[in-house]
Design brief:
Order of helices and strands: HHHH
Shape: globular
Helix content: 40-55%
Oligomer: single chain
Structural class: mainly alpha
Number of strands: 0
Distance between the termini: 35 Å
Amino acid sequence: MLYNTLEDNGVRPEKVLRKAGLAGAEWNAPAAVTALFAAAHPYFTESVPCDIDTDQDDDSASDYDS
Protein backbone atom coordinates (compact mmCIF):
# COMPACT_ATOMS: atom_id res chain seq x y z
CA MET A 1 0.00 0.00 0.00
CA LEU A 2 2.75 2.47 0.87
CA TYR A 3 4.70 1.63 -2.29
CA ASN A 4 1.58 2.05 -4.43
CA THR A 5 0.64 5.36 -2.79
CA LEU A 6 4.10 6.76 -3.39
CA GLU A 7 4.35 5.50 -6.96
CA ASP A 8 0.86 6.79 -7.79
CA ASN A 9 2.04 10.24 -6.74
CA GLY A 10 5.32 10.20 -8.64
CA VAL A 11 7.59 9.35 -5.72
CA ARG A 12 10.04 6.46 -6.06
CA PRO A 13 10.02 4.34 -2.86
CA GLU A 14 13.63 3.32 -3.46
CA LYS A 15 14.64 6.98 -3.38
CA VAL A 16 12.77 7.46 -0.09
CA LEU A 17 14.66 4.54 1.45
CA ARG A 18 17.99 5.77 0.09
CA LYS A 19 17.34 9.29 1.43
CA ALA A 20 16.56 7.79 4.86
CA GLY A 21 19.86 5.90 4.84
CA LEU A 22 18.12 2.59 4.30
CA ALA A 23 19.37 1.73 0.82
CA GLY A 24 19.07 -2.01 0.32
CA ALA A 25 16.79 -2.43 3.32
CA GLU A 26 13.85 -4.78 3.11
CA TRP A 27 10.61 -2.86 2.56
CA ASN A 28 9.03 -4.49 5.62
CA ALA A 29 11.86 -3.69 8.05
CA PRO A 30 10.55 -1.43 10.85
CA ALA A 31 12.75 1.54 9.93
CA ALA A 32 11.81 1.20 6.24
CA VAL A 33 8.09 1.06 7.00
CA THR A 34 8.42 4.19 9.12
CA ALA A 35 10.26 6.06 6.35
CA LEU A 36 7.80 4.94 3.68
CA PHE A 37 4.82 5.85 5.85
CA ALA A 38 6.22 9.31 6.58
CA ALA A 39 6.75 9.89 2.85
CA ALA A 40 3.29 8.58 1.89
CA HIS A 41 1.35 10.29 4.67
CA PRO A 42 0.76 13.59 2.79
CA TYR A 43 -0.99 11.66 0.02
CA PHE A 44 -3.54 9.94 2.26
CA THR A 45 -7.08 11.27 2.14
CA GLU A 46 -8.40 13.41 4.97
CA SER A 47 -10.99 10.87 6.02
CA VAL A 48 -11.57 7.18 5.60
CA PRO A 49 -15.04 6.19 4.43
CA CYS A 50 -16.95 4.23 7.00
CA ASP A 51 -20.35 2.61 7.12
CA ILE A 52 -21.23 3.88 10.60
CA ASP A 53 -23.59 6.84 10.53
CA THR A 54 -22.08 9.57 12.71
CA ASP A 55 -25.34 11.55 12.82
CA GLN A 56 -27.11 9.04 15.06
CA ASP A 57 -29.04 10.27 18.05
CA ASP A 58 -27.77 9.41 21.53
CA ASP A 59 -30.36 6.66 22.13
CA SER A 60 -29.28 4.52 19.20
CA ALA A 61 -25.58 5.15 19.85
CA SER A 62 -25.93 3.85 23.40
CA ASP A 63 -26.53 0.35 22.03
CA TYR A 64 -22.82 0.19 21.23
CA ASP A 65 -21.73 1.29 24.70
CA SER A 66 -22.75 -1.90 26.49
